[in-house]
Protein backbone atom coordinates (compact mmCIF):
# COMPACT_ATOMS: atom_id res chain seq x y z
CA UNK A 1 0.00 0.00 0.00
CA UNK A 2 1.20 3.48 -0.74
CA UNK A 3 2.21 5.44 2.32
CA UNK A 4 2.15 9.04 3.43
CA UNK A 5 5.43 10.64 2.50
CA UNK A 6 7.54 11.59 5.48
CA UNK A 7 8.53 15.28 5.51
CA UNK A 8 12.25 15.89 5.00
CA UNK A 9 14.52 18.70 3.87
CA UNK A 10 14.36 22.48 4.34
CA UNK A 11 11.82 22.92 1.56
CA UNK A 12 9.00 21.21 3.47
CA UNK A 13 6.18 23.59 4.38
CA UNK A 14 5.40 24.05 8.05
CA UNK A 15 2.60 21.87 9.31
CA UNK A 16 -0.74 23.49 9.92
CA UNK A 17 -3.74 22.28 11.90
CA UNK A 18 -5.16 20.66 8.75
CA UNK A 19 -1.97 18.81 7.83
CA UNK A 20 -2.06 15.07 8.58
CA UNK A 21 0.73 13.94 10.90
CA UNK A 22 2.42 10.70 9.76
CA UNK A 23 1.78 7.68 12.00
CA UNK A 24 2.97 4.14 11.35
CA UNK A 25 0.73 1.10 11.81
CA UNK A 26 2.36 -1.11 14.46
CA UNK A 27 -0.47 -3.55 15.15
CA UNK A 28 -3.52 -4.83 13.30
CA UNK A 29 -6.29 -6.83 15.00
CA UNK A 30 -9.23 -8.18 13.02
CA UNK A 31 -12.10 -7.87 15.50
CA UNK A 32 -14.86 -9.13 13.19
CA UNK A 33 -15.28 -9.90 9.51
CA UNK A 34 -15.58 -6.19 8.71
CA UNK A 35 -13.99 -4.45 11.70
CA UNK A 36 -10.30 -3.85 12.36
CA UNK A 37 -8.41 -2.24 15.25
CA UNK A 38 -5.26 -0.34 14.27
CA UNK A 39 -2.56 0.78 16.67
CA UNK A 40 -0.54 3.70 15.35
CA UNK A 41 2.64 5.34 16.59
CA UNK A 42 3.98 8.71 15.43
CA UNK A 43 6.76 8.65 12.86
CA UNK A 44 8.26 11.73 14.53
CA UNK A 45 5.98 14.24 16.22
CA UNK A 46 2.69 12.98 17.62
CA UNK A 47 -0.60 14.69 18.34
CA UNK A 48 -2.04 15.90 21.62
CA UNK A 49 -3.23 12.91 23.63
CA UNK A 50 -6.97 12.39 23.06
CA UNK A 51 -9.54 11.77 25.78
CA UNK A 52 -12.29 9.15 25.82
CA UNK A 53 -14.99 10.08 23.30
CA UNK A 54 -12.85 12.23 21.03
CA UNK A 55 -12.01 11.34 17.44
CA UNK A 56 -9.26 11.95 14.92
CA UNK A 57 -9.31 12.33 11.16
CA UNK A 58 -7.47 9.34 9.66
CA UNK A 59 -5.96 9.87 6.22
CA UNK A 60 -4.98 7.17 3.73
CA UNK A 61 -2.91 7.92 0.63
CA UNK A 62 -5.04 8.11 -2.50
CA UNK A 63 -8.29 7.48 -0.62
CA UNK A 64 -8.96 10.49 1.60
CA UNK A 65 -9.74 10.88 5.28
CA UNK A 66 -12.56 9.99 7.65
CA UNK A 67 -13.38 10.64 11.32
CA UNK A 68 -12.63 7.65 13.56
CA UNK A 69 -13.23 7.52 17.31
CA UNK A 70 -10.41 6.60 19.64
CA UNK A 71 -11.05 3.08 21.00
CA UNK A 72 -8.30 2.98 23.63
CA UNK A 73 -6.02 5.50 25.30
CA UNK A 74 -2.27 4.95 25.49
CA UNK A 75 0.27 6.92 27.50
CA UNK A 76 3.14 6.35 25.05
CA UNK A 77 1.84 8.48 22.19
CA UNK A 78 0.27 5.55 20.39
CA UNK A 79 -3.26 5.81 19.03
CA UNK A 80 -5.82 3.01 18.89
CA UNK A 81 -8.74 3.16 16.46
CA UNK A 82 -11.38 0.57 15.65
CA UNK A 83 -12.70 0.92 12.11
CA UNK A 84 -15.63 -0.71 10.34
CA UNK A 85 -15.29 -1.29 6.62
CA UNK A 86 -18.17 0.56 4.98
CA UNK A 87 -16.37 1.03 1.64
CA UNK A 88 -14.38 4.01 0.41
CA UNK A 89 -11.73 5.33 2.80
CA UNK A 90 -12.62 2.88 5.56
CA UNK A 91 -11.98 -0.06 3.22
CA UNK A 92 -8.49 1.27 2.54
CA UNK A 93 -7.85 1.83 6.25
CA UNK A 94 -9.08 -1.66 7.14
CA UNK A 95 -6.66 -3.12 4.60
CA UNK A 96 -3.69 -1.49 6.37
CA UNK A 97 -0.76 -3.68 7.32
CA UNK A 98 2.03 -3.29 9.84
CA UNK A 99 4.53 -0.74 8.57
CA UNK A 100 2.03 1.28 6.52
CA UNK A 101 1.96 4.99 7.25
CA UNK A 102 -1.31 6.86 7.68
CA UNK A 103 -2.02 10.52 8.38
CA UNK A 104 -3.67 11.74 11.58
CA UNK A 105 -5.31 15.06 12.41
CA UNK A 106 -6.74 15.87 15.79
CA UNK A 107 -7.88 15.06 18.33
CA UNK A 108 -11.25 16.73 17.86
CA UNK A 109 -14.54 17.10 19.66
CA UNK A 110 -15.82 16.75 23.20
CA UNK A 111 -15.35 13.58 25.23
CA UNK A 112 -17.45 11.62 27.69
CA UNK A 113 -18.10 13.17 31.11
CA UNK A 114 -16.17 10.58 33.10
CA UNK A 115 -15.24 13.02 35.86
CA UNK A 116 -18.88 14.10 36.22
CA UNK A 117 -19.85 10.44 36.62
CA UNK A 118 -17.62 9.90 39.64
CA UNK A 119 -19.65 9.06 42.71
CA UNK A 120 -22.62 8.02 40.57
CA UNK A 121 -24.02 4.80 39.19
CA UNK A 122 -23.14 4.48 35.51
CA UNK A 123 -25.10 2.86 32.70
CA UNK A 124 -23.13 2.37 29.48
CA UNK A 125 -25.07 1.27 26.38
CA UNK A 126 -23.37 0.45 23.09
CA UNK A 127 -24.77 -0.69 19.78
CA UNK A 128 -22.47 -2.26 17.17
CA UNK A 129 -19.40 -0.14 16.45
CA UNK A 130 -20.65 2.19 19.21
CA UNK A 131 -18.70 0.10 21.72
CA UNK A 132 -15.43 1.43 20.26
CA UNK A 133 -15.69 5.01 21.60
CA UNK A 134 -17.12 3.69 24.89
CA UNK A 135 -14.34 1.17 25.45
CA UNK A 136 -12.00 3.82 26.97
CA UNK A 137 -14.78 4.66 29.44
CA UNK A 138 -14.84 1.06 30.68
CA UNK A 139 -11.04 1.09 30.92
CA UNK A 140 -11.15 4.31 32.97
CA UNK A 141 -13.84 2.97 35.29
CA UNK A 142 -11.98 -0.29 35.94
CA UNK A 143 -8.77 1.61 36.63
CA UNK A 144 -10.50 3.57 39.40
CA UNK A 145 -13.41 1.29 40.24
CA UNK A 146 -13.91 2.65 43.77
CA UNK A 147 -14.69 6.10 42.35
CA UNK A 148 -17.97 4.90 40.81
CA UNK A 149 -21.14 3.28 42.09
CA UNK A 150 -22.91 0.44 40.33
CA UNK A 151 -21.70 0.14 36.72
CA UNK A 152 -23.71 -1.64 34.00
CA UNK A 153 -22.58 -2.23 30.42
CA UNK A 154 -25.17 -3.28 27.84
CA UNK A 155 -23.81 -4.22 24.41
CA UNK A 156 -25.93 -4.99 21.36
CA UNK A 157 -24.95 -6.31 17.95
CA UNK A 158 -26.66 -7.80 14.93
CA UNK A 159 -25.13 -11.24 15.56
CA UNK A 160 -22.74 -12.89 17.99
CA UNK A 161 -20.02 -12.74 15.32
CA UNK A 162 -20.31 -8.95 15.20
CA UNK A 163 -19.74 -8.33 18.90
CA UNK A 164 -16.59 -6.28 19.33
CA UNK A 165 -13.78 -7.00 21.79
CA UNK A 166 -15.12 -10.44 22.72
CA UNK A 167 -12.12 -11.36 24.88
CA UNK A 168 -12.41 -8.11 26.83
CA UNK A 169 -16.16 -8.52 27.28
CA UNK A 170 -15.53 -11.96 28.79
CA UNK A 171 -12.77 -10.56 31.00
CA UNK A 172 -14.96 -7.70 32.24
CA UNK A 173 -17.79 -10.13 32.96
CA UNK A 174 -15.55 -12.50 34.95
CA UNK A 175 -14.11 -9.64 37.02
CA UNK A 176 -17.61 -8.96 38.41
CA UNK A 177 -16.78 -5.25 38.73
CA UNK A 178 -19.12 -4.35 35.89
CA UNK A 179 -22.53 -5.87 35.16
CA UNK A 180 -21.92 -6.89 31.52
CA UNK A 181 -24.93 -7.81 29.40
CA UNK A 182 -24.87 -8.70 25.71
CA UNK A 183 -27.77 -9.07 23.31
CA UNK A 184 -27.97 -9.79 19.57
CA UNK A 185 -30.63 -9.16 16.94
CA UNK A 186 -30.37 -12.68 15.53
CA UNK A 187 -29.13 -15.81 17.29
CA UNK A 188 -26.71 -18.27 15.74
CA UNK A 189 -25.83 -21.89 16.61
CA UNK A 190 -24.23 -22.01 20.05
CA UNK A 191 -25.49 -18.59 21.19
CA UNK A 192 -27.11 -18.91 24.62
CA UNK A 193 -27.44 -15.21 25.39
CA UNK A 194 -30.27 -12.77 24.93
CA UNK A 195 -31.89 -12.05 21.58
CA UNK A 196 -33.67 -8.79 20.79
CA UNK A 197 -32.94 -5.07 21.18
CA UNK A 198 -30.81 -3.44 23.86
CA UNK A 199 -33.79 -2.13 25.80
CA UNK A 200 -34.65 -5.76 26.52
CA UNK A 201 -31.56 -5.87 28.74
CA UNK A 202 -32.19 -2.43 30.22
CA UNK A 203 -35.54 -3.56 31.62
CA UNK A 204 -33.81 -5.87 34.07
CA UNK A 205 -31.31 -3.30 35.33
CA UNK A 206 -31.67 -1.92 38.82
CA UNK A 207 -31.57 1.85 38.36
CA UNK A 208 -31.60 4.59 40.98
CA UNK A 209 -32.68 7.59 38.86
CA UNK A 210 -31.31 10.20 41.25
CA UNK A 211 -27.76 8.82 41.17
CA UNK A 212 -27.53 7.46 37.62
CA UNK A 213 -25.58 8.84 34.71
CA UNK A 214 -25.65 7.20 31.28
CA UNK A 215 -23.42 7.13 28.21
CA UNK A 216 -24.92 5.83 24.96
CA UNK A 217 -23.42 5.28 21.52
CA UNK A 218 -24.83 3.50 18.49
CA UNK A 219 -27.35 4.03 15.71
CA UNK A 220 -29.48 7.11 16.32
CA UNK A 221 -32.71 5.13 16.55
CA UNK A 222 -31.12 2.99 19.26
CA UNK A 223 -29.92 6.03 21.19
CA UNK A 224 -33.39 7.58 21.04
CA UNK A 225 -35.04 4.42 22.34
CA UNK A 226 -32.47 3.97 25.11
CA UNK A 227 -32.72 7.61 26.20
CA UNK A 228 -36.50 7.39 26.22
CA UNK A 229 -36.37 4.24 28.34
CA UNK A 230 -34.02 5.86 30.85
CA UNK A 231 -35.97 9.10 31.11
CA UNK A 232 -39.20 7.11 31.51
CA UNK A 233 -37.56 5.51 34.53
CA UNK A 234 -36.73 8.90 36.00
CA UNK A 235 -33.16 9.47 34.86
CA UNK A 236 -32.65 13.17 34.05
CA UNK A 237 -32.14 13.91 30.36
CA UNK A 238 -29.17 16.08 31.33
CA UNK A 239 -27.55 13.01 32.93
CA UNK A 240 -27.62 11.06 29.65
CA UNK A 241 -24.85 11.57 27.11
CA UNK A 242 -25.00 10.40 23.50
CA UNK A 243 -22.39 10.44 20.74
CA UNK A 244 -23.79 12.08 17.63
CA UNK A 245 -22.26 10.74 14.42
CA UNK A 246 -22.46 12.81 11.27
CA UNK A 247 -20.62 13.14 7.96
CA UNK A 248 -17.65 15.07 9.33
CA UNK A 249 -15.27 16.25 6.62
CA UNK A 250 -13.26 19.15 8.01
CA UNK A 251 -13.54 18.55 11.79
CA UNK A 252 -13.21 22.29 12.46
CA UNK A 253 -16.76 23.60 11.89
CA UNK A 254 -16.04 24.98 8.43
CA UNK A 255 -17.66 22.68 5.87
CA UNK A 256 -21.05 22.40 7.61
CA UNK A 257 -21.57 18.73 6.76
CA UNK A 258 -21.98 17.68 10.40
CA UNK A 259 -24.35 20.44 11.50
CA UNK A 260 -27.22 19.28 13.70
CA UNK A 261 -29.55 22.23 14.19
CA UNK A 262 -27.40 24.94 15.85
CA UNK A 263 -24.66 22.44 16.76
CA UNK A 264 -21.70 20.97 14.91
CA UNK A 265 -20.88 17.38 15.78
CA UNK A 266 -17.18 17.93 15.16
CA UNK A 267 -16.73 20.72 17.70
CA UNK A 268 -19.80 20.89 19.98
CA UNK A 269 -19.95 17.07 19.99
CA UNK A 270 -19.69 14.31 19.19
CA UNK A 271 -20.69 13.76 22.84
CA UNK A 272 -23.71 15.86 23.79
CA UNK A 273 -26.24 15.72 26.65
CA UNK A 274 -29.61 14.27 25.72
CA UNK A 275 -31.57 17.30 26.90
CA UNK A 276 -29.69 19.37 24.30
CA UNK A 277 -30.15 17.11 21.25
CA UNK A 278 -33.31 15.13 22.00
CA UNK A 279 -35.63 17.29 19.92
CA UNK A 280 -33.11 17.55 17.09
CA UNK A 281 -32.65 13.81 16.67
CA UNK A 282 -36.37 13.32 16.17
CA UNK A 283 -36.27 15.39 12.96
CA UNK A 284 -35.97 13.17 9.91
CA UNK A 285 -32.87 13.82 7.77
CA UNK A 286 -31.61 16.63 10.03
Polypeptide structure, described:
The chain has a 7-stranded mixed beta sheet with strand order 10-9-8-7-11-12-15, with helices on both faces. It has a 6-stranded antiparallel beta barrel with strand order 1-2-5-4-3-6. A two-stranded antiparallel sheet has the order 13-14. The relative contact order is 0.13. Mean pLDDT is 90; it is low at 1-15. It has 7 helices and 15 strands. It is 19% helix and 31% strand. The chain is an alpha/beta fold and 286 residues long. It starts with 20 loop residues before the first strand and ends in a 9-residue tail after the last helix. β7 (121-127), α3 (131-143) and β8 form a beta-alpha-beta unit. It folds into 2 domains: 21-108, Elongation Factor Tu (Ef-tu), domain 3 (Beta Barrel); 114-238, Nucleotide-binding domain of ferredoxin-NADP reductase (FNR) module (Rossmann fold, 3-Layer(aba) Sandwich).
Task: Describe the structure in brief.
The chain has 286 residues and is of the alpha/beta class. 19% of the residues lie in helices and 31% in strands.
Helices, by number, come to 7
Quickly name the level 1 CATH class of the largest domain: Alpha Beta
What is the CATH topology descriptor of the largest domain? Rossmann fold
Strand order, largest beta sheet: 10-9-8-7-11-12-15
Please name the CATH architecture of the largest domain.
3-Layer(aba) Sandwich
List keywords for this structure.
six-stranded antiparallel β-barrel; disordered N terminus; seven-stranded mixed beta sheet; 15 strands; 2 domains; alpha/beta; 286 residues; 31% strand; single chain; Elongation Factor Tu (Ef-tu), domain 3; Rossmann fold; globular; 7 helices
